[in-house]
Amino acid sequence: MSRRSVEISADLVLRAYRHGLFPMAEGRAGDRLFWLDPVKRGILPLDGFHLSRRLLRTALSGVYQVTVDQNFAGTIAGCATPLPDRTDTWINPQIERLFTELFRMGYAHSVETWQDGTLVGGLYGVALGGVFFGESMFSFARDASKIALVHLVARLRLGGYRLLDTQFVTAHLTQFGAIEIPRDTYKSRLAEALDVSTAWLTDPGADILAAEFRRIAGKTEAAG
User: Fold this and answer.
1) Nearest Cα to 109, choosing from 130, 125, 129?
2) Left if phi > 0, otherwise alpha if psi is -120 to 50, otherwise beta: which for 136?
3) Edge-to-edge strand order for the sheet containing 131-139?
4) What is the C-alpha to C-alpha distance for residues 99 and 114, in angstroms, rounded to an integer?
């Protein structure tokens, strides 16, 4: 991958996303950001998302309450919090400032998972055209980030989105069907998806979401 130190603004981040690049810091304490343009790009196919029966039951159970765009600051702070298996993160204060600005501009979004009134998981990213650029997720309780991801995928499918960019593929994302594709293939799909008209759905309704969860799980079983 190529990396180049730059001064980054919110508008520049949007332009970079449209060309397939994204910014990261070297660590929480880092004071410089870099463009990344991986040779292999991670995506999570929306029509190939793997939703297990167990996770479907959790999503339908009401154990967690899920909201959208209700606590962006708390979500990005959760993603930046060191954990026993993740002692450092690439989210530094400049990243927090930039994406909070993008949230105020209506481009960045968060999905929050709550338990008994406490924020225990979530994720955030940027939506442009028919693309959602996933940035990071966190979990302080079992399955909390997974439930946020299930809700994100359901909303993206219902809203007409075409591409869920995960930047890289991790073992955590592989269980949901994430794959790597060549950079040129990604940028071709990106260009097509950016022209798609979509709707960002904050609250499509519990019944509609439940039906979409079941459709996704049904496709998982059929593929298996």
Assistant:
1) 125
2) beta
3) 65-68, 108-115, 118-128, 131-139, 163-167, 40-43, 179-182
4) 22
User: Is the CB of residue 43 less than 8 Å from the CB of residue 177?
Assistant: no
What's the CA gap between 126 and 109, in Å, rounded? Answer: 6
- In whole angstroms, what is the distance from residue 51 CA to residue 177 CA? 9
Measured distance CA(127)–CA(124) in Å, rounded: 10
- Taking phi over 0 as left and psi of -120 to 50 as alpha, with beta for the rest, 22 belongs to beta
Q: Find the angle CA(73)-CA(169)-CA(100) to the nearest 5 degrees.
A: 15
The pLDDT tens digits of the residues spanning 150-166 come to 999 999 999 999 999 99
**Closest to 215 measured CA to CA, from 165, 163, 154, 169:** 154
Among 139, 128, 216, 196, CA closest to 165: 128
DSSP 69: S
Q: Are 168 and 156 in contact (CB under 8 A)?
A: no
CB-based contact 52:79 (threshold 8 Å): no
Write the single-letter amino acid at 21: L
138 - beta bridge partners?
122
User: pTM of the predicted model, to two decimals?
Assistant: 0.92
Across the chain, mean pLDDT equals 91
Task: Name residues of the chain where pLDDT drops below 70.
Answer: 1-7, 27-31, 83-88, 221-224
Taking the CA of residue 99 as centre, how many other CA atoms within 13 Å lie in the half-sphere pointing to its CB? 32
Among 125, 90, 133, residue whose Cα is nearest residue 108: 125
